[in-house]
Specification:
This protein is α+β, with helices and mostly antiparallel strands. The protein has one domain: Immunoglobulin-like (Sandwich). The protein has two helices and nine strands, in the order αββββββαβββ. The strands form two sheets. A five-stranded mixed sheet has the order 4-1-7-8-9, with no helix packed on it. Strands 3-2-5-6 form a four-stranded antiparallel sheet. A hairpin with a 4-residue loop joins strand 2 and strand 3. The longest helix has 14 residues. The chain is elongated. The termini are far apart. It comes from Trema orientale. Belongs to the plant self-incompatibility (S1) protein family. It is found in: Secreted.
Amino acid sequence: MIKPNGALVLMMVMIIIAWSPVLPVSANVQASITNKLGGGKNLSLHCQSKDDDLGQQNISNDASFSWEFSVNPWGTTLFFCVLGWESVGNYEFDAYSFARDRVRCENRCAWLVSAEGIYGLNDQTGFWEYVYSWPAP
Ligand SMILES: *[C@@H]1O[C@H](CO)[C@@H](O)[C@H](O)[C@H]1NC(C)=O
Ligand SMILES: *[C@@H]1O[C@H](CO)[C@@H](O)[C@H](O)[C@H]1NC(C)=O
């Protein structure tokens, strides 16, 4: 049996504290994608980053898929998604890109998928912006 050694535990705590600025900092962002296609249409969605695969999702009309993440200190955080519905096969878009969304989505990155295209909430201004249009058929 190993007895807990007070000095060792204290040293480990100090090492963790000393290293903590290196760990991903602050700012949790909540991202969400809502199906506003109407007409009872389902949306298929698959989002991922370099490190996380959020899995294949089927979203019914008016339902949402959301997740939270921390922005990495290197400014390279990127989540991209591939979606599909009736008229659109595989459409890829960025749900969060640090370069574009650092200010725009400081805490919240909300998207509405509609028949016209994809609207994104500018968390800074509170306005919905028309960001992605569907490719011409
Ligand atoms: C949408 O999905 C639900 C459950 O997965 C299914 O019952 C329904 O038929 C689907 N609707 C359409 C229009 O495909
Ligand atoms: C989503 O729907 C597809 C086919 O429409 C099905 O193969 C898949 O299992 C569904 N995924 C989930 C998570 O329900």
